[in-house]
């Protein structure tokens, strides 16, 4: 048998199969793809973001008629993104902000350039001011593989059930994988939802690679922090998105922890001053302060980093989120009711809270907590724990579906855990007015059955205008 000798054709075959493993190389295209919307924080506006594989002009054509010409035009910018993977793949991110939109009106649009246009999409412009009732889909930890909740979310979107989406970290699993092709696939998968609704995000641990570069490049959030932290107003709510990841990936800069903390403090101060107009303060961050899952994640530790800060004492968020709106005279002292198994609120006359609702993900399950501060439960009453609660309500909603499957719970729930659901699904959040918020958990495992359904009712003081 003759020995095999290397030849150029063999090398070509090896290269071909190597590329095949990574995915076939793309033919550069000017056709827009991965189209998605976001709200830039300016009333009457909407930002359209998309990707092309060659540099082109960035234009959106839009109008109010479903058929026929689109008479309105808006131009924007294009930026080059080079992925940090070994192939250094390059693509082009386009951003165009539409302005002077009529509140609540449905628009039809397409994006692109003379070199290629997307298909037509529809969206409804957000209403202005605090006097309306936003409807939100909320979830985290949605992957390109096993995206269980996505088909139902698409149907909900087609039925005009939501005004916006909150994706609470962890996308694609992971956007940088396979030289960012997994990110491309994920952005194509969510397009039927994200091209019709503002898709608002915060970073999770799975976005960390190359200093969160895929996350920063692909999404267009308000503010000037590349989507790491920002806030926006929606109806009677002020929504704050922030990065829990600055506490864990310190090699990208410890200064980010301090910068974000001081920004949060200023934003909360301003939101509290504006509480007559927008009574609800809602936060979204990826890693929870508390959880009762059977793993070793940060939220299972008593002194979690997100809750207590670096080294258990620097820049902790629980005290900060509780502080703004505290009762006159300082932090309330809990009262142990003689006939109740939990700790009741301090003073019925103290009707102002800090952050009202805290949305989390990371754990691939759904968990609702009793109103809580520093491991003490501050229910409103035995019969109505979420009416006039004396602490913030925590919702962990990370079961939208990804390749890592669901996360189990500990055998016995913690005293502060109100409900635990180990099923794929997502959360619906309905901000009815300045006093009432409706929270539901949809189970995809049970064909859309509502497996949790609560109302959070805050005091009337300072909110009478919403009745």
From TrEMBL:
InterPro entries (alphabetical): Calcineurin-like_PHP, Metallo-depent_PP-like, MPP_PAP, PAPs_C, PAPs_N, Purple_acid_Pase-like_N
Keyword Oxidoreductase assigned: no
Domain Calcineurin-like phosphoesterase residues, every copy: 135-366
Keywords from the named record: Glycoprotein, Hydrolase, Signal
Residues annotated as domain Purple acid phosphatase C-terminal: 391-452
Annotated signal peptide: 1-23
TM region positions: none
Boundaries of every Purple acid phosphatase N-terminal domain copy: 32-124
Gene Ontology molecular-function annotations: acid phosphatase activity; metal ion binding
Organism superkingdom: Eukaryota
EC number: 3.1.3.2
Catalyzed chemical reaction(s): a phosphate monoester + H2O = an alcohol + phosphate
Uppermost EC category: hydrolase
Similarity field: Belongs to the metallophosphoesterase superfamily. Purple acid phosphatase family.
Protein name in the entry: Purple acid phosphatase
Upper taxonomic lineage: Eukaryota, Metazoa, Chordata, Craniata, Vertebrata
